[in-house]
């Protein structure tokens, strides 16, 4: 369940910079103090800059107050404010005001600022470049909020970082290297993220005044290495951070340092050190009155206990997390905690309590779905209102055009002629493109027809193979019943009769040599009956027919395990009511993969995992055997077993992936559509 930690980890990005919260009265008192100080400034440009910065301070709390300081700065600047540099600053600080309230308008203002600042003279070039770096960073952050994380990374690399280099601002450059790294980390590109963390650390290397920045970087780099499962690198970064932690014991990042350290030690199975760090982190977070970090650390402890199969203390930590989650508005965090409480209670066989937590999880999930629908409706309403405004604007524009045309009768003829020429040109162009598109459409239709024929043939092949598989399974079932009920019963009857004859021979004390031969025949007959039952069970296992898919797969794994090969079978969220053909298909796929592993892999350990999620069924079979070259050994000369698996997967609209390397074992990953 460690992948569930993402919701908490991402939240760290928003809390690490705030050591305490201020009331509105405290903010106003602080702002008034700054305002009284700037009134004493004589230079009008310096004073205007201070007013802009004060506006930036208020942009997060009171947009009206923030805009009033911008207007006052404009008045202070007077004619000087008409320069390109100050026009850019006005747009930049207005964008900051609209950042939360109206993101679309904020993006527009940032682009206006970019247009004004990019062409300023040499005198203000450095300051303008610094503002351009800030505005592009903010513009990218707005894109990230829209789910365009890749675009944000591109802006940081192509816009912000070159600007920071051009003015030689190592602090700005280092911060943006770290921003790139954190976004790449969130996108799952851990190797590139590691490169940017290293660049940021190189900039700050040896700088004694940058202890906090280096401390933060080492911790984030360690977190990236943990996500990449590079535990050697995460350990090195944590050791470096530990040295700095001694020098800055009051850093707001101390709880996060212990959280990442605990996760590192838990990942390498040293749970004693992990929990020691978690407890230290909890103490530090509580001293900072940071409830969000307290909840995160408690959840990290739960994950460590769960990974060590210590479900009782794991449940205790989840229950400690619960009050923090309930007092927040985040439904996804509640959903995650309720789900883990349900699964942990199930592991502890506390089924009644598990049902209660599952109901809570289900209610939150339903609410999330409802909220998402409401957001979509709200978005549609906004688009409709925007369209209506644009329509009204167009109507006003049309009326103005009519008035202008009525005042320009002398130019009307020339305008009509010009318009006619344009229309004729447009019509000619449209006609020409229509002919070209018609030809392209005909060619595309031909290609689509050929593709449909190809798909139809492929579907016919799949249908034929499906029918063959069904026929094979019915014949297997019939033969299995005949072997078990018919021939098996006859052999058992013969064995009983021979046993009775052997008993009479014992009583009569007839020839001992004949007596031993008779018992040998009985033993051979007994082995034959067992072998017959094994064959019948392989052709159609009784556990699959009467106990369901999970029991049948478990029996199969137990049956194929031996002293030299251990098979570990795990399931998650499996049901008992799958369609019979689907159960048979899954059973045959796993049976074929295990048979291949036993015959060819030379492995000592095989892991089999089956789980259901969102209507999809996932199968994973991995071994630690000799492996093989996937291209040369499989795809160029694929065997019947793998071919049968591929055909079954295609029938169930599934996907089949193989990951194998010589000397490193093999992994087979299958995704199936349960209902076709």
TrEMBL record:
Gene3D superfamilies: 1.20.5.1930, Histidine kinase-like ATPase, C-terminal domain, Tetratricopeptide repeat domain
Residue span(s) of domain Histidine kinase: 478-676
Alphabetic keyword roster: 4Fe-4S, ATP-binding, Coiled coil, Cytoplasm, Iron, Iron-sulfur, Kinase, Membrane, Metal-binding, Nucleotide-binding, Phosphoprotein, TPR repeat, Transferase, Transmembrane, Transmembrane helix, Two-component regulatory system
UniProt keyword Iron-sulfur, yes or no: yes
EC number: 2.7.13.3
Leading EC class: transferase
Coiled-coil region list: 370-404
TPR repeats: from-to residues: 174-207
Catalytic activity: ATP + protein L-histidine = ADP + protein N-phospho-L-histidine
Transmembrane segments: 412-432
Name recorded for this polypeptide: Oxygen sensor histidine kinase NreB
